[in-house]
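Batch manifest, entry 17 of 40.
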Amino acid sequence: ELAVDAAGKLQPPTADDTNLVGWYAKGVSPGEQGTAIIAGHVDTTTSAAVFADLRELEMGDRFTVERADGRKATFVVDNADTFAKDDFPDQRVYADTRDAEVRLITCAGDYDHSAKDYTENLVVFAHLV
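Output type: structure tokens
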């Protein structure tokens, strides 16, 4: 489960498991009405991670989320956008929706060695089919 820090930023899952994604549990579950938030690493200090190929998703592509309750939710990509971390559009990304939607979030852009973080986030916007 993902948390939000004191500054209101979504905290990524631990980097110990490169295949781990995190879900913001205070929001809706993927496939339920509203906006579900899932985040994962693009890489770690040792290897590529679960969202290494997220940038390859294009409008119309489908993906499936396997939920903890055993159900599966299939989504179709509406679009993918990259945003500077210091100008992240919280309302656009996290706003609640009337339909079942999901946002997949990972790091993008250049790696800032002094900050030990990427400069941007890639967000994939998708809806339930």
